[in-house]
């Protein structure tokens, strides 16, 4: 797809400085810009590159004033970074929109309901009574179980498995290799010193505008629902256990594990490799630093770090002392000789 500077400025509500007929068909980082590419300048650290980039069009902040000659056409906007992100999303959605129809070989059960403008790729499998909303995209080797509901404009990438009775809202994105609705980790010890499996008869509910990264697993509830609320963004390689609830607009980085029945509030930020034990309550607007271990409830707005985690200011002070511990011990040993 090719766009002119004039068309891009109209999309972004910006103004063109230079040739409004300059056309681009690719994106590039400013330091790797080439003819026919669109890039942006938001971070002042990268300003030197704008004077030597070969990119055809550069999006800049409205207050940018060049100090040297620039060969590229500029588009001035209020927020260059946000504008560039908008264009990337526009480009991605345009590519998705081009895919419609049912490819073969694929299987769609006779009792399934498939909405208008849906794309079902070859080797996808859609089970009995599944409902696929208008404009949804189902990529190759996706399995959709019995009675699953997929909302409008939701995208399910290759290799995803969605087990029976799970419900996905509108504008959800599930990346490759995810399993949604696998059994929760439920086993009861018996008199023979082994374990009896506890049936997991609940489901998973994923609300609108959620994105889940590759190879993440979301377990079905033992009873009731495991719930990911509207707008949450879940990274790759994350384990979300049975009956967990994740609040609206939470962001969770890779390799985090959340044990069963823990409830996480709204607008939380959780770093990578965080471990959270089961049956906890994490308040709204909580921030948890990477590699922290959470073993107790956290109140609204707290920022914590460490394993076990505690308030981040206390952690930073403690860490500063901990780093000096070998030196302190050496001095103590010298004095006790």
Description:
The protein has 337 residues and is an alpha/beta fold. It has two domains: 3-97, MurE/MurF, N-terminal domain (Udp-n-acetylmuramoylalanyl-d-glutamate--2,6- Diaminopimelate Ligase, Chain: A, domain 1), CATH 3.40.1390.10; 101-316, Hexapeptide repeat proteins (UDP N-Acetylglucosamine Acyltransferase, domain 1, 3 Solenoid). Helices cover 15% and strands 30% of the residues. It has four helices and 40 strands. The strands form six sheets. The protein has a twelve-stranded mixed beta sheet with strand order 8-11-14-17-20-25-28-31-34-37-39-40. A ten-stranded parallel beta sheet has the order 9-12-15-18-21-26-29-32-35-38, with no helix packed on it. It has a nine-stranded parallel beta sheet with strand order 10-13-16-19-24-27-30-33-36, with no helix packed on it. A hairpin with a 5-residue loop joins strand 22 (187-189) and strand 23. The radius of gyration is 25 Å and the shape is flat. The N and C termini lie far apart (77 Å). The model has no long low-confidence stretch (mean pLDDT 95).
Please give the number of β-strands. Answer: 40
Q: Name the CATH superfamily classification of the largest domain.
A: Hexapeptide repeat proteins
Number of spatially distinct domains: 2
* Morphology: flat
Strand order across the largest sheet:
8-11-14-17-20-25-28-31-34-37-39-40
- Count, helices: 4
Task: Quickly describe the structure.
The chain is an alpha/beta fold and 337 residues long. The chain contains 4 helices and 40 strands.
């Amino acid at each position: 797809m090719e766009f002119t500077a004039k068309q891009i400025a109209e999309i972004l509500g910006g103004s063109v400085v230079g040739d409004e007929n300059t056309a681009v068909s690719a994106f590039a980082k400013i330091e790797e810009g080439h003819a026919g590419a669109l890039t942006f300048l938001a971070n002042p650290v990268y300003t030197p590159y704008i004077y030597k980039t070969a990119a055809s069009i550069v999006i800049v902040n409205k207050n940018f004033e060049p100090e040297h000659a620039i060969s590229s056409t500029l588009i001035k906007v209020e927020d260059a970074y946000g504008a560039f992100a908008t264009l990337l999303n526009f480009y991605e959605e345009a590519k998705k929109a081009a895919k419609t129809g049912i490819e073969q070989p694929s299987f769609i059960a006779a009792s399934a309901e498939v909405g208008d403008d849906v794309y079902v790729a070859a080797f996808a499998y859609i089970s009995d009574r599944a409902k696929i909303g208008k404009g949804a995209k189902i990529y190759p080797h996706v399995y959709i179980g019995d009675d699953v509901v997929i909302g409008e404009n939701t995208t399910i990438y290759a290799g995803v498995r969605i087990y029976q009775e799970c419900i996905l809202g509108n504008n959800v994105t599930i990346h490759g290799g995810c399993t949604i609705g696998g059994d929760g980790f439920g086993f009861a010890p018996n008199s023979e010193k082994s374990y009896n499996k506890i049936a997991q008869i609940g489901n998973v509910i994923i609300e609108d505008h959620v994105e889940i990264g590759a190879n993440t697993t979301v377990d079905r509830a033992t009873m009731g629902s495991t719930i990911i609320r509207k707008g949450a963004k879940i990274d790759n390689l994350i384990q979300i256990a049975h009956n967990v609830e994740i609040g609206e607009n939470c962001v969770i980085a890779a390799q985090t594990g959340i044990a069963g029945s823990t409830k996480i509030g709204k607008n939380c930020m959780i770093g990578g490799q965080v471990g959270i034990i089961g049956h906890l309550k994490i308040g709204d607007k909580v921030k948890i630093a990477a590699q922290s271990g959470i073993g107790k409830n956290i109140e609204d707005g707290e920022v914590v770090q460490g394993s076990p985690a505690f308030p981040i200011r206390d952690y930073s002070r403690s860490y500063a002392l901990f780093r000096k511990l070998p030196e302190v011990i050496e001095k103590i040993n010298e004095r006790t000789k």
